[in-house]
Amino acid sequence: MILRRKSSPHHNATLAGARSTAPLATVPAWLRRAVPDAKSLAGKDLEDLALSAGAAIGALDAIVRRQERWAGAWRQRLALAAAAVTAKQVGRVEDEAALRDAVLLTRPGESLSVGPAGLLLLAWRRLASRPAEELLTLKTLAAVLKEFGYAPDDEVVSDLSDDLRQLATGAGMVATLTGSFMAAERHGLARAVGAWLADALLAQRLGWPHALPLLGAEAALGISARSRRSAASFGATGIETDPERAKGLLAARARAAIRAIDLSADLERRADRMLTVAPKLRAKAAGTVVDKLLSDDAIVASERISGMSDRGLRRLFDRLVELGAVRELSGRTTFRIYGL
Question: Would you say the pTM of this structure is higher than 0.70?
Answer without folding.
Answer: yes
